[in-house]
Amino acid sequence: MQIPFSYRIKDQQLWLSPDRCIFWEEERSLILSDLHFGKTGHFRKSGIAVPQHVYKEDLQRLLALIQHFQPRQLLVVGDLFHSQENKELELFQKWRDDFSGLEIQLIKGNHDILHADWYRETGIRVSHEYLKIGDFLFIHDITTAGEPGTHYSFSGHIHPGVTISGAGRQSLRFPCFYFGEDYAVLPAFSRFTGTASMERSPGSAIFAILPADPLKKQKGSVLQIH
Predict the structure, then answer these.
(1) In angstroms, how far apart are the furthest CA atoms of the chain?
(2) Which end of the chain is more exposed for a tag (fewer CB within 10 A), N or C?
(3) What is the DSSP string of 21-58?
(4) Exposure of 218 by Cβ count < 10 A (0-12 exposed, 13-18 middle, 19+ buried)?
(5) How far apart are CA 117 and CA 101, in angstroms?
(6) Distance separating alpha carbons of residues 126 and 106, to the nearest angstrom
(7) Helix, strand or coil for residue 215?
(8) Closest to 174 measured CA to CA, from 184, 186, 185, 161
(9) Collapsing DSSP states into helix, strand and coil, what is residue 10?
């Protein structure tokens, strides 16, 4: 298991995982965004050859995170699924049967368009706009949150990334966690996504997610960008 990065906010202990999620210790909750399950199947139906192992690896990564952190619930801030039902969702249902005791709370995103019966039969509780827990608010798209309130918001949707420049003109872009003064943006859990550049602003903190390097026997890591 890759080593998470410790981060505290609102007197709460968060663990930022290189596997693109946050473990909220006090609530024993795994916070994720933009898993886009079924996306590779959607592309294949459209005639674009995307191998299914991409989706299976995402499910396996989620399994490893659950086994490591032992959460009581998953908090998904949108886009758990990508589009209409396809064969890949049958694989998800089998995966879900193995974790029937795990609570899953979905705050609906723009891609979550499955019928309400499907979520109910799969044991997924759905919030249509936002969810408040303690001092935190969970919403898919922070731009729809309205005026800042007393709650600190967690969102997804934009698939945040950060560019790190090296010697000369070399630069690399990595997915990242973004923490502003009033809200955070989570990286897309799915690796089958692009990234949108996040700019540092006063009072913000950005954490790049560096990939593992098996050849050098290095695990993935979370690096704060200064």
Answers:
(1) 55
(2) C
(3) EEEETTTTEEEE----BTHHHHHHHTT----THHHHHH
(4) exposed
(5) 19
(6) 5
(7) helix
(8) 161
(9) coil
DSSP letter assigned to residue 187? P
Length of the chain in terms of residues written: 226
If you search the block for the tokens 């969970």, which residue do you land on?
138
Query: Tens of pLDDT along the chain (226 residues)?
Result: 688 999 999 999 999 999 999 999 999 999 999 998 865 544 445 444 444 566 788 888 999 999 999 999 999 999 998 666 667 788 888 888 989 899 999 999 998 889 899 899 999 999 999 999 999 999 999 988 876 678 999 999 999 999 987 666 778 899 999 999 999 999 999 986 778 888 888 889 999 999 887 767 778 999 999 7
CB atoms within 10 A of CB 221: 16
Q: Which helix (H) or strand (E) holds 190?
A: none
Give the position of tokens 């959607």: 42
d(C-alpha 41, C-alpha 113), whole Å: 15
Q: Give the integer Cα–Cα distance in Å for 222 and 29.
A: 19
Q: If we measure between CA atoms, which residue out of 76, 85, 92, 73 comes closest to residue 138?
A: 76
For 5, residues 6+ apart whose C-beta sits below 8 A from its C-beta are: 15, 16, 17, 207, 221, 222, 224
**What is 5-159's CATH number, 1.10.760, 2.60.120, 3.60.21, 1.10.287?**
3.60.21
